[in-house]
Amino acid sequence: MVSLVLHVNGADRPVEADPQTSLLGVLRGALALSGPRFGCGEGECGACRVLVDGACITACDTPLWAVEGKEVTTLEGLGDEACPHPLQSAFLTEQAMQCGYCASGIIMSAAALLTSNPDPTEDEVRHALARNLCRCGAHNRMVRAILAAAREMRA
Q: What is the pTM of this model?
């Protein structure tokens, strides 16, 4: 166990954990953040995606030591119920979630895309979501939501 400070969602958060612990384990356990989800545990499904220094990564296969000193953003860091991020609002408006299990990882992938490409094409959105698995079949609504959020963010 080591003591370290993580910078999560704009705040310093002290943590005591084994540096080999997964970032996902610390986010969901010690920091009680429920946005990143545990899916496959192997970095394949994308349910646990978060932003680290603006890059979208899978938190389940990222050791804690790899993010020390970096800015970690989870779904909770994008917005909240009182002031949702345009992506969060668009997902609700477009009813882009069915079970919602994959949604936070998909929204984080979309947030990374819109940061680097504020005016993506539908193909670019689909490519950005290619590593996020959703078994509900809500992909078309998710793509519409992301394109709507992009338009709103550019306005």
A: 0.95
